[in-house]
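Lab notebook page, bench 4
Experiment: in silico fold of construct C2
Operator: M.H.
Input chain length: 151 residues
Purpose: comparison with the prior construct
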Amino acid sequence: MKPDINTALMFCAQEIGTLFLPLLEKSYDQSRLGSWAGLMLLSSLQIDGAADNLNKQNKMMLEWLKKNKTSIQSKTLIQKIEECESLKLPDIKISTLDNFNQKLRQIFVEVQEVLEESKDLEYLKESWIILREMHGHRKVSHMLDLLKSDS
């Protein structure tokens, strides 16, 4: 039976820390390798929830955008929101969810700018709550991209 990715990352981080770090002579190199080991360890603890967190973020943003569509005068912005509403994701891979998340974030920021100009405090407060939650989810998951290979 193959270990899951979390276990593999955790073992790899432990091996780096215990076997390879002591072999390096320069403290700079030890520090860099130690940082990578720490990143891998953190990622191993967070990878299971990464897709779920992205899915939750996407749902929160989409609901907020739908709710605020009536407060927007820009037809282009409304069209972007409607495109996202009707979009069916081809799969639930982290990369797909993340690409959709980035698209929603861009629209989210544009709508926020419109609402800031209109001084609509109720919707702005809701957006700050969503941003706070999104920030909490992204503390480690944004570092996972560093661990991906190019192949």
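Observations: The CA atoms of residues 40 and 147 lie 8 Å apart. The chain has a mean pLDDT of 81.
Next step: discuss at group meeting.
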